[in-house]
Specification:
9 helices; mainly alpha; two-stranded antiparallel sheet
Length: 179
């Protein structure tokens, strides 16, 4: 975990620790996190007003609104990356500038309901694909050119399960400011 307060707010559940091999019980647990993310997220943001949606979880951090839109952006990219890895041999994926995406008008001012709908659909599809995968499928990979690294699908699963929990923790931190 990070030392200073701002880092603890930035990574409230700690840094992601890479998954280094396939483990069947971990896979089931992480798929469950992804499967339940939509319902958990909706429960966290239900009945928030505009001022609350525009609350940040830390100085310089994203608003609850931006976090919700970011999860839709990120997880759409994740579903495509997963499918590419399953259908091609070590494809090179397209990175996206998440920080710049979060500053676009749709992320800063638009209602979160369309992004929640995207998350619902993407997570239904992610869960369907993940539940159908064999151990061999979880050992398939893609290459991330930004990091010059190969990511295996068991690690992809770990990263996206962590990502769900990471941003839920951000929303909970922001909500503490007005509860």
């Amino acid at each position: 975990m990070h030392g200073n307060t701002n880092d603890k707010l930035r990574y409230p559940i700690g840094d992601y620790v890479a998954t280094t091999s396939y483990n069947g019980s971990d896979v089931k647990h992480r798929i469950n996190i992804i499967e339940n993310f939509y319902n958990t997220l909706v429960a966290e943001v239900a009945n928030l007003n505009e001022a609350q949606l525009n609350t940040t979880y830390r100085d310089g951090g994203w608003t609850i609104r931006q976090v919700a839109h970011h999860c839709a952006d990120s997880h759409m990219n994740g579903l495509i990356r997963l499918k590419l890895a399953l259908c091609e041999d070590k494809p090179i994926i397209k990175p996206y500038p998440e920080q710049l995406f979060a500053e676009l008008a749709d992320s800063k001012v638009e209602p979160i309901e369309p992004s929640l709908q995207i998350i619902c659909g993407v997570h239904l599809r992610l869960t369907s694909v993940l539940n159908s995968m064999s151990e061999a499928d979880f050992n398939k990979s893609y290459v991330h050119p930004q990091y010059q690294k190969q990511f295996f699908m068991f690690d992809f699963l770990g990263l996206y399960a962590w990502h769900c929990q990471h941003h839920l923790a951000h929303i909970k931190l922001a909500k503490q400011k007005f509860q």
